[in-house]
Amino acid sequence: MKIVINAVLGPRVATQTSVEFRSQTSFCCPRDCHFLMSVLKRLAMAIWLGLCLFFAALPALAQVPPNAADKFRAASDALRAGNLDDAAAGFASVVQEAPAFAEGYFNLGLVREEQGRHDEAIASFEKALALKPRLHGANLFLGIAHYKLNQLDPALVALRKEAVAYPKDAGAWMWVGVVALAKDRPEEAAEALDKAAKISPMDVDILYHRGQAHLLVSKNSYSKMLEADPKSWRVRQVLAQANADAERHIDAIAEYEAAIKLAPKQPGLHEELGSEYRNAGKPKEAEAAFLQELEIDPYNVLARYKLGVLAEGTD
Length: 315
Known about the structure:
Elements: E1 5-6, E2 10-11, H1 39-56, H2 58-61, H3 66-80, H4 84-97, H5 102-114, H6 118-131, H7 138-148, H8 152-165, H9 170-182, H10 186-199, H11 204-228, H12 233-245, H13 249-262, H14 269-279, H15 283-296, H16 301-314
Antiparallel strand pairs: 1-2
Helix pairs in contact: 1-3, 1-5, 3-4, 4-5, 5-6, 6-7, 7-8, 8-9, 9-10, 9-11, 10-11, 12-13, 13-14, 14-15, 14-16, 15-16
C-alpha cells in the first residue's frame, strides 16, 4: 500500500514531483524545468528594481565622483527603458570609476541576471556584499542566482542570511522555503513559509508554496506511519478521510469499516462512519453507527448532534 497526497484530494492521489514557483517578483523556477522564465516579466522586474535601487542608492551616490554618479543615473535610465546592454555597460563603467560603490555592483548584478549571465551576476552580488554586508536584497538575489544554476547549498546560505538580516522581509523567507523544497527538506520549507505567511498572510504565492510544503510534510508523515505499522487502523482512517474529502463515500465506508475491525473501540471511528453512511443515503446504517459511537463514548457531542439531525430528517 502506498500513501501519497494531492492538494485537492488529500492522501492517496499522486503528488507533483516538481516545485513550481510563481510570484509577483516574476521569477518562475520549476525545479525540473531548469528555471524557464518569461523574458517580458523578468524585464519588467528588472526595471522596477532599477527604480527602487536608484532611489535607495541616492545617499551613497552623493559619495561617488560626479562623473560616476552621472553614469549611474544614465544606466538606471537604460534599465528602466529595457536596454539591458546599455545598462550593463553603464554600471560596469560606474564600478570601474567608483570601486567602493556597493550599489553599483548590485545593479550590475541585477542586469547580468536578466541577461542570463548568472556567474557574472553572482560575482557582482558578492562584490556588493563584500563592500556592504547588509545591503538589502543583495543576498536575496545572490541566492536566486545560485538557485538558477541549481547550486542549492550556496543559494540557501545566502537566502538565510537575507532572512536573518531582514526578518520582516516576506520574500526572503519565501525564497528560503522555495529552495528548501528543491532540496527535499519540506519541514524546513514549511517553517520558513509559515514565517513568510505571518508577515504577508494574503500573498497567494507564499500561500501556494506553504501549502506545497505542508502537503509534503503530511506525505512524509503518512509514509512513516505506513512503514512503522502497515496494519495500523490509522492508515485505514487516513484513506477513509481522503475518500470522504473526494466524496467517494462508498470507498470511505469500506476504509472506515476496515479501521473499525482493527480498532473496534476507538472513539471517533463510528461517528465518522455514520457521517459517510448518511452522505451515501443510508440513514439506518448511519443511525446504527452513531449509536455505536455513543456506547463507546457517551460524551461525544458531535455524534449525538448528528443522530438528532438524522432523526429529524426521517420524521
